[in-house]
Model the fold of this input.
Amino acid sequence: MSEAQKPEDGMTEEAGSDGDIVLEARGIDVSFGKTQVLKDLSLDVRRGEILGFVGASGAGKSVLLRTILGLNKKQAGMIRVFDVDLDKANDVERMQVDMRIGVLFQHGALFSALTVKENIQIPMREYLDLPQKLMDELARLKIELVGLAPDAADKYPSELSGGMIKRAALARALALDPDLVFLDEPTSGLDPIGAAEFDELVAKLRDTMGLTVYMVTHDLDSLFSVCDRIAVLGNKKVLIEGTIEDMLSSEEPWVKSYFRGKRARQLDLKTRPKLGHSTPQQPENRV
Done:
């Protein structure tokens, strides 16, 4: 294991274990027409960690996310999730993988004609056969889990603030008690206080639910305070992955400019706050 791949002090033992990879991508190529976006890209995500995925605008961060989720077609490579090769999985295996994944899209992607409660119940209706009363109770539990008031259940997205939309979308991502959660720019559009509170919520959920989190973000505060490791996308592949200390010591031009440039966050790493990092606990009862 290279220096850039060593687990950071304070990470959970699970998050730093090389032998416990929940997401493995190898040799990924993605093109749209004659434009190649990703070329021979490889990446690992370890159980229990919060991985921050960063790169220049248009570099292909969302393309990789959508490719992992099966929303984009790749031309080459292998994606293995929970030790299942997605190209070789049958319908039952693929459904089992999908039920262990939650996704928060960048702008929430809530259905405007449905209430918060109804939005949260969409995955339950798709994958489970539950009575309405139980789904209502589960939706209320998810609403409470993400810090929304109980009366948010019957509100429509148009009645919610930006921060509330993010939390409602997160509640939907957690509807089936997933093991792996993808967050696409979860703090974009939030004020600094709201963004910090959302980061704290993600860290708390990771610790209490035993989540693994793949976070696409441009937020330096999130990268500094909540991410165990960071992967940087550039030149159509992962340029470097490691801790925030690895990013700050890198001489890769884009990495250096991003993390040590004029607008980079100035912080003493010895005293920086780090959210979460207790041993992840798997919930006793899963939906």
Observations:
- Confidence is low (pLDDT under 50) at residues 1-17, 278-287.
- The longest strand covers residues 21-32.
- Residues 37 and 181 are 24 Å apart (CA to CA).
- DSSP finds ten helices and ten strands in the chain.
